Amino acid sequence: MFAALAFSAAATPAICAPLAAFEVVNDGIPVALTNAPGDAIRGRMIVGNRQIGMCMLCHQAPIAEDRFQGDISTNFAGVGARWTVPQLRLRIVNSRQINPASVMPAFYRTDGLERVTATARDKPILDAQQVEDVVSWLVSLK
Amino acid sequence: MRKIGVATRVIALAMLGFVSLAVAQSTRQSGFDFMQPATQALQKDDTQNPAMLWVKDGQAIWAQRDGATQKSCADCHGDIKRTRGVAARYPQYSAEAKGVINLSQQINQCRTTHQQAKAWPAEDASLLGVETAIAVESRGQPLAPPAQSQLVDAQKRGEAAFDRRIGQVDLSCRDCHESLAGKRLGGNIIPQGHPTGYPIYRLEWQAVGSLQRRLRNCMTAVRSEPYPYGASELVDLEAYLANRAAGMQLESPGVRP
Q1: Do A116 and B225 touch (CB under 8 A)?
Q2: What is the DSSP letter of B200?
Q3: Strands B207-209 and B200-202: what pairing?
């Protein structure tokens, strides 16, 4: 069961392009990573997918059809009222810039990683558009 | 800034030096304790534990003459019951191998040197059979890594690896098996990661597998490149795990989901 649910590498984004540049201001990233706006419906799918967003391994969310939600961290219900868009963006891009000891992985980062498997090397877990999609779903959860 | 999540709080406290993240001796629990009653029942009953088929094979191989010398394990070691305690002491330093080796490597060393037979490949059913048959004889024995300076060095290297964040997901063994042990990672309860049940029968594998197979699974899980079977890095981790679990009872063959 573990192999199937673990952060299995099958569906990492097929891009190898350099990461979009972004600037951290206070505890957020104010400017979107892409020109196209995020799509909340795609965001919900990414969050719920074990191979893509894998958020539900640790979090819970109002996704009733998911029966195996983790209990390592918070429930996303109300997360859009807890944080602003820039704050959410930084937490997904690299929550370890806020708390280096956090177990939450950085989803938009390729540097400083060790022994990354070949199929995932030099790729972030989520691409820029996927980060924006996730942010736009989370912020809708007021 | 708001900080949410028990893990965060524990880590924050640990950084302030208030609590230790190390699993305290008294709170150590085998993976068995984290399992569903139905899976526990499979492990507890030898007539139901599928790994006992491997044990039977291993016991038969113990008595079979093999290799150029046509000797059996029994010819040198006598009744397999005399191996009581052996599995609880591996990995250990071997002067013959000039390094720290695990039990399966010791078995293969006996094959190549004393039987002059071919070494079995990693995860070969015969190798797992003999290893499991030896491990069964040590059931209930406390893990007791011997005091050897070379082994201490391996344990230290293993501990460093246990603490190192690896893979695209960038997590260490300790992140999961200490800070998050007992928590639910999706549908799976994260155990403390003790090696006390190995080799195990894993329902997902439909087969018996070694501790190295388990460690490689955990490495793949965080999208890191697993070390090849037999790599010294894996033996170092096994040596650290055995020491971390020293005094806990061997319960091979475990059954895991």
Answers
A1: yes
A2: E
A3: antiparallel
pLDDT at B69 over 60: yes
For residues A90 and A65, what is the distance between their CA atoms, to the nearest angstrom?
A: 28
| Residue-wise pLDDT tens digits, A20-45 | 999 999 999 999 999 999 999 999 99
Q: Is B207 on the interface with A (CB under 8 A)?
A: no
* A4 — pLDDT class (breaks 50, 70, 90): very low
Q: Count H helices, E strands: chain A?
A: 5, 0
The domain ranges of chain B are: 6-45+144-256, 52-137
Could you tell me which CATH class the domain B6-45+144-256 is placed in? mainly alpha
Closest by Cα among A6, A9, A126 to A70? A6
Residue B24 has pLDDT above 80, yes or no: no
Q: Which single residue is written with the structure tokens 């708001």?
A: B2
φ/ψ (deg, to 5) at B118: -75, 140
DSSP strand pairing (B188-189 vs B184-185)? antiparallel
Whether the predicted interface score ipTM is above 0.90: yes
Instruction: Select from A112, A115, A108 the least CA-distant residue to A53.
Output: A108
pLDDT above 90: percentage of residues in chain A: 82
Q: Does residue A116 register a pLDDT over 90?
A: yes
Decide: B50 and B201 in contact? Cβ < 8 Å: yes
CA distance B86 to B102: 11
CATH superfamily entry for domain B52-137? Cytochrome c-like domain (1.10.760.10)
The minimum CA-CA distance between B203 and chain A, rounded to whole Å, is: 9
Write down the residue that tokens 């979090």 correspond to: A59
Characterize the bridge pairing of strands B200-202 and B254-256. Answer: parallel
Q: Measured between CB atoms, which of B166, B183, B217 is closest to A115?
A: B166
* Contact by Cβ (8 Å): B76, B67: no
B6-45+144-256 and B52-137: same fold? yes
The answer to whether the CB of B136 falls within 8 A of the CB of B252 is yes
Best residue in A72, A76, A119 to probe B by mutation, most B CBs within 10 Å? A72
